[in-house]
Structure formats: structure tokens, C-alpha cells
Amino acid sequence: MTNTPLAELPAPPTTAPLEPALRARGLTKVHGTGDTAVTALDAVSVDIAAGRFTAVMGPSGSGKSTLMHLLAGLDTPTEGTVTLGDTRLDTLGDSQLTRLRRDRIGFVFQSFNLLPTLTARENIVLPLRLAGQRTDDPWIDEVTDAVGLRDRLDHRPAELSGGQRQRVAIARALATRPDVIFGDEPTGNLDSSSGADVLAFLSRAVRELGQTVVMVTHDPVAAAWADTVLFLADGRLVDRITNPTADQVLDRMKAFGEVTA
Ligand SMILES: Nc1ncnc2c1ncn2[C@@H]1O[C@H](COP(=O)(O)OP(=O)(O)OP(=O)(O)O)[C@@H](O)[C@H]1O
């Protein structure tokens, strides 16, 4: 074997995987005790890639919400660990966890959860105001430009369509540049065209703004926007697809007996 001088070695690939944004190891959640105990999540270990769009799918009751709540620090596991960047969530007290959720995690819910008396712009900067941060950050201009609602920013939620409201909710989740944005069925209340607008915006947040998004969904078309789809069944991580098509996701769901069509 000849010794190759370092300078002649090929450069490492530029597409080397990034450090994961989130690591879960042996995550287990048991509700109740004794005869009534329900194992909602059963020893799930998974890395959530930074700067990527991940969807979580699985039949009803498979543990999707439980996994999301544990990853987001909204609930504590019975066993196992979650690490966000360098921070082990189990080492944090309640107030530290609250601060971590406020500063490092963004949430987007099915029901938008915008404040009705505030304009779209005021809703978007609300997390910064609550954190006592400046709201004239150029990042906010970038986010509000990306939301594509320049002429609607002074409107209140009641004057916006469902898809527009959800885009405002995503912009609000982006305001603090969180490490991870979690979406819980973000297109669940939208028709397919508004849903596509919202998914396109989430996808831009990942591709153009470098954000990390994790989305729970029942919809194979929505999941197909993700870079990776994780499949849960009976509280376990049973499969994953990278660069999925909606048909591939649908086929996988049919295999779980979730889709009969
Ligand atoms: N607080 C709780 N107490 C008891 N059982 C619970 C609790 N929360 C969840 N479970 C059970 O844990 C399992 C996983 O629930 P989870 O809500 O995570 O599933 P899911 O995949 O998100 O379901 P869906 O798609 O219907 O929202 C289910 O059997 C559920 O009934």
C-alpha cells in the first residue's frame, strides 16, 4: 500500500450529511400502569436531518403525535432520550424546556392558532415580541417576502383565506429561526389547492431558508413534498422512504391496511 499525500486525496463530498437537528434514542412512552398501560411509542431511535423536510406517517394510533410531542419537548418519555443539537432535553427543568420551545422550536397546527385581533404582520412578529427581541430583523423581511402576502400583511386573520392564514402561521413559526419547525397536520383543514400552497411554502422554508421541518400527516400527497417519510406502526418505526412520490407513500400505507381505496 502506498502512502498518498493528503493534498492528493480527493476532496470529501460536498453533500456529506449534516449533523442531525434532532436525535431520538430508544424513545418509549407508556400511558397508564398495570392492566390499562398503553405503549404509545416503543423504543424508537431516529435522526431528523438538519435542513431537510421530514414527514411522519402511519395508521391512526401508531404513535405519530406521541413521537412529535416527545421530539418537541412537549411531553417527556418513559424511557429514552431526545437531543436537539447539543442539548439533551431530559437534562432541562420545566422553565428551561419552556424557553427552549419558545426560542428553538416552531409549531404549526391544523387550526392555525393566529390571534384574531392582530394583523398578519403582528402575528408573524409576535414570538419575537414575546421573547423581547427586535422585530426589524432583515430575516423578518425575508420571511414575510417568502410568505407571498405583501399586500395582505395589514389584514386580520378573518380577512384571509385558510391557506393564507396557514402561511402566516408558518411565517410566525419561522420568525425566531428555530432549529426545527413541527407541523401537526398543517394542511388538514385546507382544500387541496390551498394545501399545496402551504406545502410549497414549507418546502421553500427548507430549501431556500435552510430550515428543518418535521410534519405529521395522513395525506400521501402532502408527505410526498418531504425529503424523507418515516412510517410508524404500533409505536415502532417500521419504514422510511427517501425522495418519495405520492404513489409510493400510498402503496406503503396500503401495506399497513390504512388505505383501502
Ligand atoms: N394520554 C394518553 N393516555 C392513554 N393513551 C394514550 C394517550 N395518548 C395517546 N394514547 C394512546 O397511544 C397510542 C398512540 O397515540 P398517538 O396519538 O400518538 O397516535 P397517532 O398516530 O398520532 O394517531 P392519530 O393519527 O389518530 O392522531 C394510541 O393507542 C393512543 O390511544
TrEMBL record:
GO terms for molecular function: ATP binding; ATP hydrolysis activity; transmembrane transporter activity. GO terms for cellular component: membrane protein complex; plasma membrane. Keywords: ATP-binding, Nucleotide-binding, Transport. Pfam families: ABC_tran. Residues 22-259 form the ABC transporter domain. InterPro entries: AAA+_ATPase (IPR003593), ABC_transporter-like_ATP-bd (IPR003439), ABC_transporter-like_CS (IPR017871), ABC_transpr_LolD-like (IPR015854), MacB-like_ATP-bd (IPR017911), P-loop_NTPase (IPR027417). It comes from the Bacteria. This is Putative ABC transporter ATP-binding protein. It comes from Euzebya pacifica.
